[in-house]
Automatic annotation (TrEMBL):
Biological processes annotated in GO: iron-sulfur cluster assembly
Name of protein: Iron-sulfur cluster carrier protein
Residue positions binding ATP: 37-44
Pfam hit, one: GBBH-like_N
Database matches in InterPro entries: GBBH-like_N, GBBH-like_N_sf, Mrp-like_CS, Mrp/NBP35_ATP-bd, NUBPL-like, P-loop_NTPase, YlxH/NBP35
Complex formation: Homodimer.
Gene3D superfamilies in the cross-refs: 3.30.2020.30, P-loop containing nucleotide triphosphate hydrolases
Domain Gamma-butyrobetaine hydroxylase-like N-terminal: 317-401
GO molecular function: 4 iron, 4 sulfur cluster binding; ATP binding; ATP hydrolysis activity; ATP-dependent FeS chaperone activity; metal ion binding
Record-linked SUPFAM superfamilies: P-loop containing nucleoside triphosphate hydrolases (SSF52540)
Amino acid sequence: MQKTDPAQQPPQGDPPQPATGSGKLPGIRHLIAVGSGKGGVGKSTVSVNLALALAQRGARVGLVDADILGPSIPGMLGIPTGEPPEMTADSRMIPAQRYGLKVVSMGMLTGDDQPAVLRGPMVGKYLKMFVDGVQWGKLDYLILDLPPGTGDTQLTLAQSMPLSGMVIVTTPQAVSLKIARRGLRMFEKVQVPILGIVENMRTFTCPHCGETTDIFRHGGGELMSEELGVPFLGALPLAAEVVTCGDEGRPIVVAQPASLSARVYAAIADALVEQVHAAVTVLKPFVWKWDSNEGAPAWMEGAVQPAGARTVPVGLLRRDPRTLSLLWEDGHRDDLDVRDLRLACRCALCVEEMSGRKLLDPRTVRADVSPRQITSIGNYAIQFDWNDGHNSGIYAFNDLRALGERAGLQSVEDV
């Protein structure tokens, strides 16, 4: 094994480039993100203890501290900081191990007092390195503790990682719930399944008199889950020992497994496992060579259901060299002409972002234009590499469904 030079202080230049394949994550069954709309709701504490609760059930679990600019996971797990990890011969990081978890964090590279001063694109590069540039081995779950908000990190994940789903953490207070709702909506827009809501810091029980107090109100997470139609995974108490254990590097699930908080985490882990199994994405990530049909995605008519989603595809097919067919979960099928798809591109080169004015002149698009390659983007879109050299357009599934409906109406009018 090679070891990185401890004298090197990351991150100054580009991060080391991971040895990646087709975009899949070999050996990792489920990639689960834990996020929140705002900071201060205990999201990292939930991520750590939830990962440990899954591990205590016999699962193989990894944990990524995806808050690149504000890492906190090493401190909660008692992992030394500022000690660069060992590397494999093919330049993959070897994760730290603690309490049965495999862990990667920017804090392992920078130390407690060394800030990571990075622009957005560099944050995305480090995030990708921490996920697919690590020697994880076989995992049942890889948990990603996200920074708060709906910024670069969240979008990078949605576009480039095959997420099994998202867990939203909130506190019962109204302002937290409002911002958590925005975060939830963001992931819904990019077709990432919402596995559930966790309400943190619900009730405080005085250790002296036993009286309970709802410091941040009560039941807001349950109400939000009902209003939005997403699962409610559980509510955690506000307990001083959770903070103490985290500060000592021994999370509550490990330090006090019989405590109320640890028992609630166990129940949340059980509920999460059920939701993950129910939300398994039908279509797997793909890179599809159009002319040869190499790497073609599945066409799964058996996944069609009457109450299925309108914008979740269960099949893509090259019907002929000029036609892309899509089968949707609700059973509807669209056959789209590939030149029409090229003309419908909404990237910044084809459509003016602010006004929506079309910049692409149809007369400049070849009659024989066709895809060279089609690539899945997260759970919500596909991207085309066209034989005219254009490759910057991302086609969201909801836009493709709308395009198919418009094409269907046009064909009816022509008749």
